[in-house]
C-alpha cells in the first residue's frame, strides 16, 4: 500500500512519539509498504526504504517545539494540514495513518476522500492537558474530549500503546477496531565496545559509587523531584546520573541541585545520542523510572528491562500494566519507599529480577511479533473502511 502518514511532531527527535513513529515506519517498510510522511519542519531526516518526508512551512518566530501541547503546535498544525491537503491532491493513497492530534486531520481527510484512516493513539489528548499542565479550562478540555471521541469512532482502526489506553478507547469505540502494540522495538546496537564502555564507566563513576541512572525527558510528569527527594534517604554510596532533557531544563535543574547541596551526588549529562544510550545503561547499577503522572508506559521501560540491569519503578498503572514484581522492583511514589526500592535493587533481589526481565524481553518483545501486530492493525483498517463505505 501507499500510505500517507501525518506526524505532528519533530521527526526525528529522540523522544517518545517520534521513536514510536520511526519504528512504525520501519515496520511498514519491512511489510512492503511505502510511506509519505508529512511532519513538522524540525528534526533529523531518516533513511528508510520507501519513506519520503514532506515538511510543512515554518513560521519565522517558531524555532523549536517542546514536548506536549503548546501554542506553537497549534500554529504549526495549521500549516501541517495545508501540506497534508497538498499531498492528498497530488498523490494517490490507500491509507491515512495519523499520530497524536493528527487524528483530527485524519478524520477530515477520510470524510473528504473516503480513504481509510488508521489512528495511532499514543496518549489521550484529554490526559495530556493535565500531564503537561497546558490548561485547566473546562471548555478546552471538553473540546478535546469531543475531538478524541469523534476520532476514535470514525477511524477504521486504532493502534494503542498500552492496556490502560486500550481500555479507555474500548469505552468509546468498538474493541474489534483496536490493536495493542507496545513500544518495545529498539534498533540501537548493543554495548559491544569494551574500551568505550570502560571509558564511560570512568566518566560516571570515577570513585566506585553505586550508580542510579535515569534516562529520558525532564518534563514534570516524569517524577524527577521524587527521585531527588529519594536521595535524602540513601547513603552517600549512591550517585544519581541523569541523562536527557533540553539544555534550558538541564541548566535549571543544575541550579536546583546547587541549592539542595546535591552537586556532588548528582551528575547531569544532558542529551546523548541514541547509539550511546546502551553503553550508559551498562554503566549503571540500578535504572529508575520515577514517573508520577499519567497512565502511558514510559518508552524507556522496554530498553531498561532488556538491559539486564535492575529496574526500580513507581508502583503506579503507568508501569504496573506491563511491569510485574518479578521483572522490576516496584515502589510507592514517595521518597522513602522509592529509596528503599533502590536499596533493595542494589542487592540479590535486584539481580534476580534483572535476569528475569531480560529473559522476558528475549521471549516476548521480538521484531517478528512487532511486525505481526502492525500487519494486524493494517488488516483491520482497510477492510473495515471498505465495508463502511459500502
What ranges have pLDDT less than 50 throughout 5 or more consecutive residues?
A: 385-390
Count the strands? 13
Question: Helix segment count?
Answer: 15
The CATH architecture of the largest domain: 3-Layer(aba) Sandwich
The average pLDDT value, as a whole number, equals 92
- Structural domains: how many: 2
Strand content: 15-25%
Query: What's the gyration radius in Å?
Result: 21 Å
The assigned structural class equals: alpha/beta
**Assigned CATH superfamily of the largest domain:** Glycogen Phosphorylase B
CATH domain topology of the largest domain: Rossmann fold
Level of helix content? 40-55%
Explain the overall architecture.
The chain has 390 residues and is of the alpha/beta class. It folds into 2 domains: 2-185 and 367-389, Glycogen Phosphorylase B (Rossmann fold, 3-Layer(aba) Sandwich), CATH 3.40.50.2000; 194-364, Glycogen Phosphorylase B (Rossmann fold), CATH 3.40.50. Helix content is 46%, strand content 16%. The protein is built from 15 helices and 13 strands. It has helices at 16-30, 71-90, 102-113, 125-131, 138-154, 163-170, 194-204, 224-230, 247-260, 277-282, 300-306, 317-320, 335-345, 348-364, 367-389, and strands at 2-7, 34-39, 51-55, 95-99, 117-121, 157-160, 178-180, 210-215, 238-243, 266-270, 286-289, 311-314, 329-331. It has a 7-stranded parallel beta sheet, sandwiched between helices. Helix 12 links the parallel strand 12 (311-314) and strand 13. It is globular and about 65 Å long. The model is unreliable at 385-390 (pLDDT under 50).
Amino acid at each position: 500500500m501507499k500510505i500517507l502518514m501525518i506526524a505532528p511532531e519533530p521527526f526525528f527527535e529522540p523522544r517518545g512519539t517520534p521513536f514510536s513513529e520511526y519504528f512504525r515506519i520501519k515496520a511498514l517498510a519491512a511489510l512492503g509498504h511505502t510511506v509519505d510522511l508529512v511532519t513538522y519542519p524540525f528534526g533529523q531526516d531518516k533513511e528508510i526504504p520507501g519513506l519520503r518526508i514532506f515538511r510543512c512551512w515554518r513560521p519565522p518566530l517558531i524555532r523549536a517545539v517542546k514536548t506536549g501541547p503548546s501554542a506553537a503546535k497549534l500554529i504549526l498544525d495549521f500549516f501541517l494540514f495545508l501540506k497534508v491537503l497538498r499531498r492528498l491532491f497530488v498523490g494517490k493513497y490507500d491509507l491515512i495513518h495519523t499520530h497524536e492530534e493528527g487524528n483530527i486531520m485524519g478524520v477530515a481527510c477520510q470524510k473528504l476522500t473516503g480513504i481509510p484512516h488508521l489512528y495511532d493513539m499514543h496518549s489521550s489528548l484529554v490526559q495530556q492537558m493535565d500531564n503537561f499542565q497546558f490548561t485547566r479550562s473546562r471548555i478546552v478540555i471538553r473540546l478535546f474530549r469531543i475531538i478524541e471521541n469523534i476520532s476514535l469512532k470514525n477511524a477504521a482502526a486504532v493502534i494503542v500503546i498500552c492496556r490502560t489506553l486500550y481500555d479507555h478507547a474500548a469505552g468509546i469505540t468498538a474493541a474489534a477496531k483496536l490493536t495493542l502494540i507496545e513500544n518495545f522495538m529498539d534498533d540501537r546496537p548493543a554495548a559491544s565496545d569494551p574500551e568505550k564502555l570502560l571509558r564511560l564507566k570512568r566518566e560516571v563513576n570515577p570513585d566506585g559509587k553505586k550508580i542510579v541512572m535515569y534516562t529520558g525527558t525532564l518534563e514534570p510528569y516524569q517524577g524527577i523531584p521524587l527521585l531527588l527527594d529519594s536521595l535524602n534517604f540513601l547513603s552517600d554510596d549512591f550517585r544519581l546520573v541523569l541523562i536527557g532533557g533540553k539544555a534550558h531544563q538541564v541548566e535549571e535543574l543544575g541550579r536546583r541541585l546547587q541549592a539542595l547541596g546535591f552537586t556532588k551526588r548528582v551528575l547531569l549529562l544532558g542529551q546523548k545520542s541514541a547509539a550511546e544510550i546502551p553503553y550508559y545503561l551498562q554503566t549503571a547499577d540500578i535504572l529508575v523510572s520515577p514517573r508520577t503522572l499519567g497512565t502511558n508506559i514510559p518508552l524507556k521501560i522496554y530498553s531498561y528491562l532488556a538491559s539486564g540491569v535492575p529496574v526500580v519503578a513507581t508502583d503506579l498503572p503507568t508501569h504496573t500494566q506491563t511491569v510485574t514484581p518479578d521483572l522490576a522492583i516496584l515502589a510507592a511514589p514517595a521518597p522513602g519507599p522509592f529509596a528503599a526500592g533502590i536499596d533493595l535493587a542494589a542487592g540479590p533481589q535486584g539481580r534476580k529480577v534483572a535476569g528475569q526481565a531480560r529473559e522476558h524481553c528475549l521471549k516476548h518483545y521480538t521484531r517478528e511479533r512487532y511486525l505481526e501486530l502492525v500487519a494486524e492493525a493494517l488488516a483491520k483498517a482497510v477492510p473495515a473502511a471498505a465495508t463502511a463505505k459500502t
